[in-house]
Specification:
207 residues; Bifunctional nuclease domain; 2 domains; 9 strands
Amino acid sequence: MEKLIRLAIRGISLSQIQSGIYVLLLEEESGRIKLPIIIESLQAQSIAYALGKRDPSRSFTHDLFLTFAKVFHIRLKAVVIYKLVNGIFFSYILFEGENKEHKIDSKTSDAVALAVRFQAPIYTTKEIFDKAGIYFENGFPIDNKENELPSSEGIENSVPLVFNKEKSQQDLEKMTERDLNALLNHAVVNECYELAARIKKELDRRE
């Protein structure tokens, strides 16, 4: 079995591109690799609620599941993000009950919402990081294959001074790899993680 990488929740931010969509930002323990995942509003609220930003008037289905699990002595052992296909992350939840383990497929955002409530670890694979992870050095994203920081000259010459986060897929496809890497820096600095994920996907597509 492939060695798994433990993740922590770095934060949740509102999408700068699409209304009602959020970006769940996960990172590995050193903080050098971040994994942005697009999630819907309800799951984003549920995760934020479980992290401590609580509204006493709110309750989520994930809370009902937690209560149900406690009554029947079911323990959530881990959540694993194990596959990425066409930009969609696939996860499973590992449960233990009556001294037996059970693995159940789940939407990643639901799995994370439950993991927070059960205080269970979240894992992914190196393959997922290679496909969708954004590598950082001194606060800036780097190309993990080349392991080099883009030069400031390259950034200034490749991307307009006014950062435009409204980039369509067609816009990205027309850009050079150098311009895409420079734009990736700007997207991360401006915390536009959804755009950063799309840029990373376009770069990977060209390999």
